[in-house]
Each structure stands twice: as structure tokens, then as C-alpha cells.
Amino acid sequence: MFRSFCWPRSISFSRLVLAVGLLSLVGCGAPEATGAGQAVDAADASSSGGTTTGTPKAWAIAIHGGAGVIPKDIDPVQKEAYYAALREALTLGQEALDSGESSLDVVEKVVRKLEDAPQFNAGKGAVFTHDGKHALDAAIMDGSTLGVGAVTGVETVKNPISLARLVMTETRHVLLSGEGAEAFADTMELERVDAAYYFTQGRHDAWQRALAREKEEGEQRLMMDSAADDQASLEDARLGVEGSADWQNEKYGTVGVVALDRAGNLAAGTSTGGLTNKRWGRVGDVPIIGAGTYANDAACAVSGTGIGEQFIRHTVASDIAALVAYGDLSLADAAHKVVHEKLKPGDGGIIAVDPQGNLALVFNTAGMFRGAADADGRFDVAIWEDE
Length: 387
Ligand code: ASP
Description:
Blueprint: H1 13-25, E1 38-40, E2 47-48, E3 51-52, E4 60-68, H2 76-98, H3 103-116, E5 136-142, E6 147-154, H4 160-170, E7 175-177, H5 178-186, H6 201-223, H7 225-239, E8 255-260, E9 266-272, E10 293-296, E11 300-306, H8 308-313, H9 316-325, H10 331-342, E12 348-353, E13 359-363, E14 367-374, E15 379-384
Parallel strand pairs: 6-7
Antiparallel strand pairs: 1-13, 2-3, 4-8, 4-14, 5-6, 5-9, 8-9, 10-11, 11-12, 12-13, 14-15
Helix pairs in contact: 2-3, 3-4, 9-10
């Protein structure tokens, strides 16, 4: 627990304090400067000494569809399909939060929408494993109760985020894997699919290219698969390499949602197919609570995307929450510190929201599919840094 006391959900004490604080601070909130690869809610995420001086929002939501090297010259039709998928998902979240739905319901609903969109590496459109399968990971966390549910390596569930939520509500466990997760799914009412459902030609081709490259580079390369792939991608991202034929293959494309609802509660959810050509039951950051997913009403809700191994090493999501809770940093400063000072360029990005509705969408890659909306009329989707 970050704090030793709890306020009743309906009171939203933090907003009361903020409102009182604002009375004496009117006019003092200078907008936060945004740095490279970060899009912070500049109008209201100002920070100094950990004090957020913006106007609290009744609700707020951010979504992502993965971070990485996204060539600016992608086919216009493909580009529009990405924007459309992001807009559709964001609209769903916007309407649900505006009408008073809980952040947890909204996170599940919007992640499901993104899982159903073939553009992203989650649900339909998930990447291929080394063995030509799909093994999906997902996690959801309720910031008001610290309830969490996660699954890893599931192969027949249409919407893994919903299975993760059932782990949270229907079991005393927090993380179920592989066959066990499938057996649990058998006991629940949940839409199941066969492997063909997840198929997309682009992911299939990317897997084939990865296999061919692996063969070419030999057994030694194979043994160093993860580290070498990560390094290659990292170099590309550092160099801002664009137009690479493989830009959407090995990693990224994970989806995530964070939300603040009208009751003042936070939630986060993330879903992914993991990395193309992953093997040996590899588990990424997404289902590891505190790495790729975290939510606590006393701090913030976070969902990440990028090189899962890096997010696990640096406990990215819980670190951001800890910097807000113990470090007294604003959400913007905490997110910047972890993404730009702890992670390395090219590792990935995060979306986050705090109890005042400040949003942070921060990445150290060339781009991140993302969107943000709030009760004050904000609604924007973007891919690259300079949008
Ligand atoms: N973080 C995910 C993983 O490592 C990949 C991604 O974000 O696309 O499984």
C-alpha cells in the first residue's frame, strides 16, 4: 500500500484538496514543457515540487497501440486504418466514462476493442511464436482495490483482457499461465477461438522473415535471440531508422488503456501477443504487475509497451507510481524520469493517468500509437512525436 489510509470512493479527497489548493493558486500554473518523445497534457500537468496545479478532470483516458520505429511513409491507407482504430477505441472510452461507467469496465471494454482490431499485436493480429502459434498475455488492475488479474501464454481466448479480469474476480490468484489459464477459461463463459482467428498476413510474413534471418545468422544468433533482437531494434530506434521492412514485426503493437472515472478511481489494462518468434514460454512485461501494468488510486495508473525484458528489469509501471506516491513527483515528471532516464532510447513508452486526470503519454522510440481524451473536451490521436 502506498498510503496507510483510504478515503471512501465517493468523496474523492484528492480533488477536494486540489480544489482548495487551486483557490490560492489561481493563475500560478505554468504549463509543463514537453521533451523529445513525450506528449504530456501540457495544459494541466504543470509541476513544481511534486504539486500538480492543473484543474482536476472529471474523467480522463489514454490508450496506446504500441511504440517503436513507425515509418512516416507508411501506406496512407494503412495509416488511416491505424488512426481510425485508435479513434474508434478512444470514442468508446470517452462515451463510457462520460456516462459514468467505472474505469475498470472502460479499461476492459476499450482493450477488447483494440484486441479485435487486426492492426495491433493483441487478440486478432497477435504475432507468431517460433512454433507458429499465438501465445497471448494480458493484465488488468483496479486502482481502487489493488485487485489484479493476469494471464500468460493463452492460445484460444478471443479477448485475453476479459480472462485476466476473471482471474481477478473469480479466483484467489493473480496470474495464470498456459494450460492452467486455458483450463480456467474452460470453466468461464468466454468467447474461444481457434488459432486461425488470430492470423494476419503481415504478422505471418514477419514471422517467416524472422525465421529466415535466424537461419541465416546461425545457431549462435539463435541462442542470443532476445538480446540481439532487442539490440537491433534499439539501434534502429536510436537512429530513427524508418522504412525498415520489418518495422512492425518483432516487437511493439501491444495495446493498453488507463482511465480515471467520475468516482475518482483509476484502472489500467494491457494486452499483447508478445514478441514475434518468441520461444521457450517467454513471458514479457505485460502480465507482470508493476512492469507493464499498474494502477493505484493513491498514485496513478500505467500501461507500457516496448521491450518487455527492459520493462521487467526496471519495474517501469510501479516505479512511476512510486515516484508519484513517495517521491512527490508530478505524473509528468515521474513518467519522464523513468522513460527517459531509466530506460534506454528505443526501449518503448507508457501511458499514465493520475487521480486529477493528468495524462502522460511518454516514449523514447520514434513513435507510439496513442490517444487521449478527457472531460474537458480533449480528444486526440497520434503516432509520431511531432503530432
Ligand atoms: N511489451 C511487450 C512484450 O515484451 C511487447 C510490446 O509492447 O509490443 O511482450
